[in-house]
Amino acid sequence: MKKYEIGLFGLSVMGQNLALNIARNHSIAVYNRTTSKTENFINNKVDNQEIKAAYELEDFVSSLEKPRKVMLMIQAGKPVDLVIDGLLPYLEKDDIIIDGGNSHFEDTNRRLNNLKEKGIRYLGVGISGGEYGALHGPSIMPGGNENAYAEVSDIMEDAAAKTEKGACVSYLGPQSAGHYVKMVHNGIEYGIMEVLAEIYDYLRKVLQLKPAEMGDIFAEWNQDFESYLVEITAKIMKKDDPKTGRKLIDLILDKAKHKGTGKWSVQNALDLGTAIPTINAGVNARLMSAIKEERVENSAQLKNSNQAVVDKKEMLPLLKSALYFSSVIAYAEGFKLLKTASEEYDYNLNYREIARIWEDGCIIRSGILEPIQEAFSENMDLNTLIIAQQFRTQLNAAAEEITDLITTAAQSGVPLTAVHAALDYFNSLKSEELPANLIQAQRDFFGAHTYQRRDDEGTFHTEWE
Ligand SMILES: NC(=O)c1ccc[n+]([C@@H]2O[C@H](COP(=O)([O-])OP(=O)(O)OC[C@H]3O[C@@H](n4cnc5c(N)ncnc54)[C@H](OP(=O)(O)O)[C@@H]3O)[C@@H](O)[C@H]2O)c1
Q1: Is 32 near ligand 1, meaning CB less than 6 Å away?
Q2: What's the farthest any 2 CA atoms get from each other in the chain?
């Protein structure tokens, strides 16, 4: 019986496209819990590729070359545990399970360590790029058992997006390093998406622009940014609704959903004691958007009576600066979190390499990743990107410009939460002096928590009254 190089379990949108992508260079067997999906895939999506459809789990596993490589592209969470349990009776020592879904990194650590005891090797692999990326070349973020990665690296490299620097995949580190980096990638994505949404809000509510005009502005700015998210925002602004002929963006309900990776980034950042306010603003804004009915009720009673008077020609460059500034800060927060996590969890991350594999295939690909790589090439231990010579002058200049933008937005009742958070993150990080002396005094006042002095060693308590 012919043996296949890799097996892919899970034929939803990502799994189907990734299977077709892998099949361009490698033989692959596929399986899905619901067999009709497998039939539909084989009959309607597969042309001449060498893809074997398996309808029984045992047949699926036994059709694979040893050591077997089984890639899971299924819903994250409990299903991954259930599927691993189902596979185990058919697997042998040294076989490799690859979880390509958006699993929580702590689940990946648990699974990896449990399977290690059984002799099964495990890789937690973050994959970004949506369904298009899965088919044409995603950014792939693998972590876990390093010698297992060596055995699948050719498959991963062939499937990944390519730049002139190579394939957008690199072994990132032990344990859950891959899923952790993917989580932070998604956190940065939340931050930049929110910044773009806020700029769109300013353009429509303060400058009173129409979507088509905004589309032109975003497209023009993107000649400098080369950002996928800016590119799709420009295209979204131009899209007509076939049903009504109006711009589709005007017909989409303003309630944003989320699947969890942004929230996990914020939760873990808090656990590690690292501030990521721009990313946090992205998560919070989705929560605020979700209470639409409440917002509608409130707005009837709390009408905004002011409208800032602004000059479009003057404000557009400031909006472009805000987009640049806040995007760089979202990356800076993400890389700071990666550095903290790498030290805490011994991931030994290579930040330059992470920026390199994000340069194509993934949702946060943009021109900003090139200077980020340069900054880490010059200093891999860089504490924060805001002091890198590639950014510091531009950030300082942009920070001054953004102030006017924030003022006029506030006057018009338009929230610029992420842009504001980015500015305050920058201002906090570059402040020699913060008002935390007062916080310490208050803590000591009501709770005898003690404080340190600038002029003496040790800890002190004062009877304040
Ligand atoms: N969609 C994206 O753009 C995107 C981007 C990056 C990463 N991801 C991640 O990639 C993974 C796959 O995403 P997706 O959107 O293609 O699919 P999905 O909607 O997250 O999951 C559906 C797949 O999971 C399978 N499944 C669910 N519960 C199962 C169980 N108990 N036992 C066996 N199979 C089970 C389903 O099988 P049935 O057909 O039998 O129900 C189906 O194949 C997810 O972890 C997702 O977070 C998605």
Answers
A1: yes
A2: 86
